[in-house]
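Example with several molecule types.
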Amino acid sequence: MSSHREAPSIAFDPAADNTDTYAFVSAPGKVCIIASLSPFQLPASGPNFYEFGEDVLYQLYIDNDGDGVANVAYQFRFTTTIGNPDTFLYNTGPIESLTSANWNRRQTYSVSKLSGPGLGNRAELGAALPCPPANIGPRSTPGYAALAQAAVRTLAGGETVFAGQREDSFFVDIGSVFDLGTLRPFQNLHLIPTAAQPGVDTLKDSNVQSIVIEVDIDDLTSDGSTPTDVMSPTSVIGVWASASRQKGMVRDRPGRPTSAGPWTQVSRLGNPLFNEVIVPMSRKDEWNADQPSTDAKYERLVFEPELAGLLPVLYPGVFPNLAAYSNPRADLHAILLTGIPTGVVPGFQNFTGPTPADMLRLNVAVPPATDPNPLGLVAGDAAGFPNGRRLVDDVTTIELRAVAGVTIPLVDPTFTPDGAAGLIEDGSYNVANREFSSTFPYIGLPHDGYSVPA
Amino acid sequence: MGPVNRRSFLVHGGVGAAAAAVAAGGGLAVLSAGSAGAAPLSQEELAVLDRPVLVQVRDASTGEVELLVGDREIVFIDRSLVANVLRASR
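Resulting structure tokens for the full complex:
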């Protein structure tokens, strides 16, 4: 969760495993997109600390005309260098700057922008950009905040960029959810009841690798404008991320494999939890390789979500109205595959047209909230999920409630949600466990391996 | 289609392999077995081989071969090559 080891194949390939994608209006005229990868990083992970894959192509996509095909893409490629081949150490003393001679293994990266028909226009935005080191501990990486901030760069197109280790901003009670759909704190109502206990924030001590880019909105919209009319179709963009490996690989040299051939997508991520809880196990790898433009083949899974059928079974008598509801779930179809059309939520839309495609849909004309509500749009905060996705958004609770029927009345006023549906919560939400920043790169600093786990 | 028709093989070439082939008197050594009559590669042709080349037999029944080089994928038909590869694999 939200896409951590969510499919059988990618579970064995952490460097290419997209864990979360975020897209939000970060400042006037700016959109921030974050792609996090490499799930469940234990901060104490020496001697080989986590890093990006040199043999992975990381991409961020923006669709601005609603067909599920990217109109703008940003590509990231990483290079690793070893300074001292004769030591087993990641660092041979404190790393006090990005040019420290004590830092033995470092990564740099390049950024390219693709645009135009078939994304045939390519612009090199930056090369040899530094990643910060992993956050090792107070002796090896003192003053880590400044060290990481020194790795923030401005690209040739004016974009701001960062790539490196951060804390995992996603929060979820994984141990409970995947124990037969247990929802703490009311597991006493479960088919197999246990005593009620508060939720557990499983990922609160985990790190990820994050790629963060902040772009002018007019670089992404179809007409090159910075929209101010929320109801205008040109105000909505679709966003997703992917990771690809080359088609062929052999292990004929000691240590490192050799790859060749075209890039083949092995992971993608738009809406949180889509592949995790919508797509069946047998098709998750296929979904990771597909493009949003072909998501029509997963439409039935959204109209008839397995989880909506499970909740009344797992919680007997708790969801009678949901159990009796037999219409296709047009509410989930809108939230996940087309965007919310005009007329559903007063004063808001993020509809991209009839093409079903799993993308985060962000209406860029909605300004950032001064006091963000983690429950986002369903709680009246139109700057939050499913209008894009912010770091603070409690997407698990939002989606669980939606699946349980809270959003059905948006498209079917005859339906009355069960009382429990609006009370469901993931149970792990605790803002005190995260260090969201109001400035770039927004996502919190990584936990250091000396202190965590304690 | 029988199982043998989808049988795949990977053959690797690269700077090291090319150099070895030249030292051996020309030709890609790994492919030379059973390739009687193939003209030796020129130095100019060998110079192109500055990166890994992976070859996969996609369909032995049609002789369809897939070549992976750099970030490209090239598909061609060579029944003779496929026959030689299959025989060498026995």
